[in-house]
Amino acid sequence: MSGSTLKGIVAVVLLVLFAALMVFLLANVGVSQASWERYVYLLSGVEAVVFAAVGWLFGKEVHREQAQNAEANAERAGAGHLSAAGEAAAERANGLALARAVIAHTEPAAEAGSHATVERASSSAADPLVRMAYDAYPELSGRAVTP
To answer: Which helix (H) or strand (E) holds 103?
Structure first.
């Protein structure tokens, strides 16, 4: 028998004993004041133990549900992260293709990546677009990438 099962059985037995004590007290309502005070004193000690057992029973279920919800949220977040990483890679590839197209359209005879290309691009009408392409993707110009 596992420790958790034993704790559950003890909690249920305590609840049954508490119910029996309550029935006993209700049956002895007409006793003397001194006896009644002793009964109530004993009830307060038993009550604390029983309430702790009930808290353990119900708290265990609440925490299990919270743990399951947390695991489900973590799985969804992990799947979202993978999806976002894939989308980011696809968008980077799209951006690179667009940058190459802008550079190729602006400088059809030049070799992409040469310094002469950068100099010719700066004099063209599409200068801001070419400059943005080289700034966004420094590997296209052959310049060293600095972090």
So the answer is: helix 33-106
